[in-house]
């Protein structure tokens, strides 16, 4: 009997030891995002951030990561954090149309050189409080961009804007939609995860994506031709937290969130996305796809007048609403020369 009790006691102590890490968490943070669990952004950026928060808090914070829009679909993710449906998200500001107009200035042609450069520009605009009023309803952790956006089509190679005439091209945001409209395309709005099915069913003829997304969302399986227009556009992203959740943390745990916020993590995100662009492009090359590079990028004489017009239209439309678009655009262009790339 004594031996049995000894074995049961030992077993109980072992079980308690195994369960103790989960029981030790004082706070559980639910983080939802749009990328698949197998994608580079999930594995190389979002999960490492979550792991670092857990490690530096000594397990007092547990971060549960929900990929693929599990907790909220991409267009609803920002509001889901604002309203406490989830605690943190990594999402695209432009999925909430007209909500972050000054932020989206970074998406205009010729602003960002690559993801590191764009991320530094965007985070700096926030830190300098030029766009901070757009984020008063959540607690921004860091902002970043993906790398250069380009055009991918099923089988029609795009060399000049007129080649886009009549083509239905998936666009990520209204800013990019205006660019595509000026380039004679027919923009079709949808979040990134819906692009594969839309392309497969013939709803769209092509997509506007960086190379990273072509691998992350498997679009290289459905496209054969790609056109690089250097500086065509980029897209802004945010990792942000519910304010009430942040404020509920004790000061020492808030300090851990703050330490893993801002420019350092913005530039880390840029590095991840620039590296994933290399992966996506190699995948297309290895598949024998045709890749065409526009000489001079956005300054090419066939493309520049149309892209300049789209940019000016966007800036003028914000100024007409009383927003300091010219000031933000000018500062973004200045930051582009001082930020790393």
From TrEMBL:
UniProtKB keywords: Signal
Gene3D superfamilies named among the record's database cross-references: Bacterial extracellular solute-binding protein, family 7
Coiled-coil ranges (or none): none
Signal is among the record's keywords: yes
Range of residues in the leader sequence: 1-24
CDD domains according to UniProt: PBP2_TRAP_Dctp3_4
GO biological process: transmembrane transport
Pfam families the UniProt entry points to: DctP (PF03480)
Annotated NCBIfam families: TRAP_S1
Protein name (record): TRAP-type C4-dicarboxylate transport system, substrate-binding protein
Organism listed in the record: Amphritea atlantica
Lineage, opening ranks: Bacteria, Pseudomonadati, Pseudomonadota, Gammaproteobacteria, Oceanospirillales
């Amino acid at each position: 009997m004594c031996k049995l009790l000894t074995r049961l006691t030992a077993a109980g102590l072992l079980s308690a030891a195994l369960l103790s890490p989960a029981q030790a968490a004082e706070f559980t943070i639910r983080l939802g995002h749009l990328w698949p669990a197998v994608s580079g952004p999930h594995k190389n950026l979002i999960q490492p951030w979550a792991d670092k928060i857990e490690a530096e808090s000594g397990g007092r914070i547990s971060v549960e990561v929900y990929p693929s829009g599990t907790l909220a679909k991409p267009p609803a993710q920002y509001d889901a954090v604002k309203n406490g449906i989830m605690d943190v998200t990594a999402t695209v500001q432009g999925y909430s149309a007209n909500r972050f107009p000054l932020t989206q200035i970074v998406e205009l042609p010729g602003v960002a050189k690559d993801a590191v450069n764009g991320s530094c520009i965007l985070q700096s605009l926030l830190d300098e409080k030029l766009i901070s009023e757009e984020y008063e309803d959540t607690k921004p952790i860091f902002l970043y961009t993906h790398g250069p956006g380009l055009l991918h089509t099923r089988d029609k190679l795009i060399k000049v804007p007129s080649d886009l005439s009549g083509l239905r091209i998936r666009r990520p945001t209204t800013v990019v939609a205006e660019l595509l409209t000026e380039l004679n395309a027919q923009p079709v709005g949808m979040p990134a995860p819906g692009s594969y099915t839309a392309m497969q069913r013939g709803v769209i003829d092509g997509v506007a994506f960086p190379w990273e997304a072509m691998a992350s969302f498997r679009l290289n399986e459905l496209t054969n031709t790609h056109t690089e227009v250097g500086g065509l556009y980029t897209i802004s992203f945010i990792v942000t937290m519910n304010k009430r959740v942040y404020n509920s943390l004790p000061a020492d745990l808030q300090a851990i969130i703050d330490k893993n916020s801002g420019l350092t993590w913005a530039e880390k995100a840029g590095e991840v996305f620039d590296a994933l662009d290399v992966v996506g492009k190699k995948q297309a090359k290895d598949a024998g796809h045709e890749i065409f590079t526009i000489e001079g990028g956005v300054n090419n004489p066939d493309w520049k007048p149309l892209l300049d017009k789209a940019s000016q239209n966007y800036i003028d439309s914000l100024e007409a609403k009383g927003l300091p678009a010219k000031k933000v655009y000018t500062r973004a262009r200045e930051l582009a020369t001082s930020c790393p790339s």
